[in-house]
Amino acid sequence: MKVIVYAVQTVEGWTPYWTVDWSIDRRYWLDGGFREGVGEAIGPRGIPRPSEATPRLVKLMEPLPLGWAEAVCDRLKAEWSGRSRELALESVRTGMGQALQAVVGEGERGNLLSTMTEIVTAGGAGAKDENEPGRGNAWEGSSDANSRAARSKAEGRALAERLPRLAQQLAGRSLLREEAASMLAAPDAATLLRELQLAALLGAARLSAAIAPAAARGPGLRCRRCGSAEARMRRTACASCGRSGCAVCEACLALGRSRECALLARGAEPGASVLQARRAGVPAADELCGRWGLSPAQRRASEAAVRFLRGEGEFAAGTRAAQAAGHGGRERGLTDSGPPNVGLRRTAIAASSDEHGLRSLVRTATARLLAGRRRDPMALQARSFLLWAVTGAGKTEMIFPLLEAVLSAGGRALIATPRRDVVLELAPRLAKAFPGYSRAVLYGGSEERWHQAALTLSTTHQLLRFQEAFDLVLVDELDAFPYHNDPMLHYAAAAARKPDGATVLLSATPPTPLRRAASRGRLPHAKVPVRYHRHPLPVPRALRMPPLHRLAASGRPGLKAGVKLPGRLLQALGASVARGAQVFVFVPYIRQIDGLVAYLRWSASAWGISPEAIDGTSSKDEGRRDKVVAFRDRQLRLLVTTTILERGVTVPRSDVFIFDAHQTLFDEAALVQMAGRAGRSADDPAGRVYFCSAYHTLAQRGAIGQIRMMNRLARRGRYLLGSEEGEG
Amino acid sequence: MSALEWLHRLLHPQLEACPRCEREVRTAPAAALPIRHPGPRAVLSRLCGDCRSAVPWILAIGCPVCGRSARCQDCLRRRVRHVERSRCAVRYTEEMKEWLAQYKYSGAERLEPVLAAMLAAPLERLIVERAVPFDLIAAVPLSAERLDERGFNQAERMATRLSRWYRIPYRPLLQRVRHTEKMSFKSRRSRLTDLRGLFEALPETRELRKPDDAPISLLLVDDVYTTGSTINECAFALRRSNPRLDVCGVLWARS
């Protein structure tokens, strides 16, 4: 869209502004009655005022594309800082023209814009606006100045009275114009812009371009929603701003189009987080955690996390742990920080296509050299805490005390999880645990999209619509697709938190950098080494087998004649079926499933089950949900699947076979997660896990090592059943 | 980034991403393309195998008027016809609906070359069938409001790409007089009545002339052919302004 740029002399001196609704700004500055009415409605404190009794506005004649308007204002602010009071009217006019020229000069050629300015005063020609609401013939004909002023005042008040509600709805949000229209239920586009503009003028909301303009020596454009840098921008001709190269962010396209000339509405800057407030009479950490019926290991970890949130005990200010918490990572400010870095090589590919890219490449490269150190988008945010709990430890119960700590203090908490089915599964449990607080459940297509709630449960993608909203951000399964390795979602999770809030990361298999940070004391953390039923984790056993591709010709159903699965493997499968276990068989690729199912069905009668009790499923299978249900209900006894079922599926009394465990697709985390499907119920805690592979790999060794380490920790912490009696 | 990671990145093969699904293209697609021109062929051959074989090309024409793959009722019902004939690239299946929605409504402009290249198939078919080369390309216009909201006119964008590939000059000849609700929400009857007088030819249209007053072959581009009334109305406006025009339609999908 296009906006108007103007400057006005306020009590602080000449200040540049841009506006999406010129009539509001013009009226606000030039019509004293209107301004008074606005002041009455929201309290006169802190609203901007012109310095003169009859103020003059200097306006660029031509509307500018939003991105440029913002850049012009930034440039003018920088230029005028310190001397904005002494500026003469003429130098304001020339300054504005020059700033526009400089900004457009940096952009593409072929966009000719007039640098002419005009002066608008209350009585001047520019003051007449036929479209202005509430101004009819009566006003034109009336000679009574008093009644005119009274009327302006009433109008100003009426408009401003709607603002507190708007400000409250926008708080903590970051919305494109279409999203804002849908959230605020604006009757039409003009009303929305009018209200937003007045809110922005009074500091009740922040309006900006959805893509941050490139600073003079900065690293190029950056999407304000998802944090993506130049490499994800596509420049296209845009009919709404008239530019031939208006950038669009391709990274967050799925959630609406963020472009250089698009309006992004954000709430006003938040106050301090409730976590910072020291209050008397709150229940102590151990008391808080005692209410939720946690096992000793869960309880100890939850208590540590609550103390971390409150900055108590070992996390009190000044202690080593607190310092670690503060310096665990780079503070990610929202306006000043650099873009998440996408590797140079990728930039280079994008750059070969056009001139902008080449220029941006040079700019990025120099910026990086100047910065000296690469910024890592996946870097830990300051005040982060890692809750490392083994599979089946009961993570959900452990987060309840944390949520209570924040909610009871009047704060807002967020649980972000990568997958929608987890959101739907968790929602009723949260509703039961926290009936007294407002809740919102967000996922693609959710009805509660615009609820402002104390407790928000969301898929990670929905976080793009928040900014500086939450006191506590809980990221579940941080090593799972799609959150893992996606700089956009990391940025979103970091941005959704208040700058002085806290982040708690949950995982059974944290990625190596986090584990390293934790072990070196840079990341405060707590481990839960034992499952809720307090039996040790089953340790995987190795079984040799020829690689699957030698058994099954890829893409062809059925197996090649002559090559068979080794007898020991079939025996182990048979034994698992015979002991009444549900058998998971994991394979690396979807195309291997059908062949293997057909093969295993030959053995069904030998194992004493019907061939129909053996089936396979994958991400491409429409009936996946039904098959998982059938598997849980024991109608299916053996399920061949891929890593799609590695998490979140709990089947009582199950054994796990991982075929081709040497495949690079199965990394350490995937192996631990798959092994974690076994032995999850209290009545069958010792499930069997087999790594069936052609050769041993580092990943397999690492996975076994991790499981053994957790069991060792559990034994040492005397969390295992029977250990208290035995030793204490 | 560690030195090892850097080295890995340096040595890793550069896999191209499919412009549609953004996944890495690993296997060479097997599906043939019904297009001869190397430009659009090159664009479409960057699609991955899955996306490429998902395209439901219209290869056999059932209705000589609208280019549908089956015989059609609409063309029999219409008495006055202003479009000589239309040809469409694909059947408007659920999958194709999603492709178009991604481009049109979500604004995934990376799909633009792909969709434009798909239009090359019906264009080439028309050229062969008619044996008369086209003199001009025009596109069905959007209303100013819609253009402002969307930021681009998909038909115009596709038309300019075709114009560059086939060296047929593009001219904006039409404008939309009124703003209507999205066509996709409407029934057949309300489409027909709503469209009346919706388009107007620009003054330039009147001036178009060929030596010795030969008829001018004009190609009109649009995205979806549902009843054919939009393109027919456009052709009507054009021919009223300049009767020497012969209008043919080329559309991306036939529903």
> How many helices of chain A does DSSP assign?
26
The largest interface is: A-B, 20 and 16 residues
The biggest beta sheet of chain B, please?
4 strands, parallel
The fraction of residues assigned to DSSP E strands of chain A is 15-25%
- Mean pLDDT, all residues of chain B: 88
Q: What's the β-strand tally of chain A?
A: 25
Q: Helicity range of the residues of chain A? A: 25-40%
Distance between the termini of chain A: 72 Å
Instruction: Tell how many strands the DSSP assignment of chain B holds.
Output: 6
Terminal Cα separation of chain B, in Å? 51 Å
Overall morphology of chain B: globular
Number of helices of chain B: 12
User: What's the average pLDDT of chain A?
Assistant: 82
Strand pairing plus helix content of chain A: what structural class? alpha/beta
Fold and architecture overview:
With 728 residues, chain A is an alpha/beta fold. Helix content of chain A is 38%, strand content 16%. In chain A, strand 24, helix 24 (668-675) and strand 25 (689-693) form a beta-alpha-beta unit. In chain A, helix 11 (296-310) packs parallel to helix 15 and helix 13 (344-351) packs antiparallel against helix 14 (355-371). The longest helix of chain A is centred in the last third of the chain and has 19 residues, at 698-716. Mean pLDDT of chain A is 82; it is low at 125-140, 326-355, 370-374 and 553-558. Chain B is an alpha/beta fold. In chain B, strand 5 (216-225), helix 12 and strand 6 form a beta-alpha-beta unit. In chain B, 38% of the residues are buried. The chains are: A alpha/beta (728), B alpha/beta (255).
